[in-house]
DNA sequence: TCGTATATTGACTATATAGTCGAAATGACT
DNA sequence: AGTCATTTCGACTATATAGTCAATATACGA
């Protein structure tokens, strides 16, 4: 009698579920782009997402879990943005330069993403830590090659990240001049005391 | 019959009032050093200050007003830190260098202050704007003297502020090496492409 | 059309936080 | 000791937010 295909059922559920979950995730993303996670409320989220309160709890255990999911999505966007460079470029300074530029260009083209990055930088998550780890690896390699005058990796990382974040804030507050990413990169390389990478694209 | 000196009364009141107000202000300062203003609660503040709830509202209309008062106090500490340099040094790059170094040294010696500065940088207040205005004045002067290779004042300001804030975060997270302020300053001057100021203290 | 697994809803209870206010305490002065 | 302007207190009411759950809707397969 009526053998029901449980697997199929679950799949259907998963599809519908994914759609609503994405709505909530998007609403959470927008809200987290404009306020710190401590300022989020479940009522605010469900209103922004256009779903009922119970639905939120059906998909997420708590606001923290939602924030973590948004963080994971942001982490994915980092990988998507940076992985190509990591594979193609063997020169650590070139990798770093490419990544830095991609970041600022993305910030210009996608302000919500930029706001989210800036907000996330307040309380470092697993994903922003990953970025820093990659950066430090590149910097260490460059230092080992004797190509940076800054010898302290942590300081070097703070210089790169500090300029990147603050320039992002500048892009968000004032309107972005398109020349900014290049100029900012030049400044970063000067700050690190970087010897020219092979491409020689700087002044 | 008992002519009461109202002015004296008011003065007495003001003294007692000032003491309790300072307690609340200090509690607010500590809390704002560790969380964004949106995450503050009146209950949390009065508990930290060791006063009753009504007392808070006797001194402040709202949490925003308390946050503004903390911001003003922070602004005063900026002036105290920076005014001497502004009066004594006529060279804009020397002024900027002095201010930058004072900031980082203060961050090392007073972590609560540093946390407060970092937190405040999220949502620029009247007082952090003042800092940026001073900085931009110095940078403009230096650019006009043809002593910086960075020509865009906003970008230059972002570079200085970005490095300063991120190095502060680094100081707070890791333990501060005392050589950091000097090294960071060197990096900033290189980033700006600054010609040597007269003292020539850099590498 | 009906049955069923899954997803969605919104009303409901808990609790936390905001903001008020009359009563009590304080302390300089007589 | 008594007076009184001022400050402090904490109980109280409002409201907002968290978190639950029984009822309902959905949509596919039989």
From TrEMBL, chains A, B:
Single GO term (MF): transcription cis-regulatory region binding
Claim: Transcription regulation is one of the keywords in the record: yes
Keywords, in A-Z order: DNA-binding, Transcription, Transcription regulation
Domain of life: Bacteria
Residue ranges flagged as DNA-binding region: 41-60
Gene3D superfamilies: Tetracycline Repressor, domain 2
Transcription listed as a keyword: yes
PROSITE patterns per UniProt: HTH_TETR_2
InterPro entries for the chain: Homeodomain-like_sf, HTH-type_TetR-like_transc_reg, HTH_TetR, Tet_transcr_reg_TetR-rel_C_sf, TetR_C_40
HTH tetR-type domain boundaries: 18-78
Protein name: TetR family transcriptional regulator
Organism encoding this protein: Microvirga aerophila
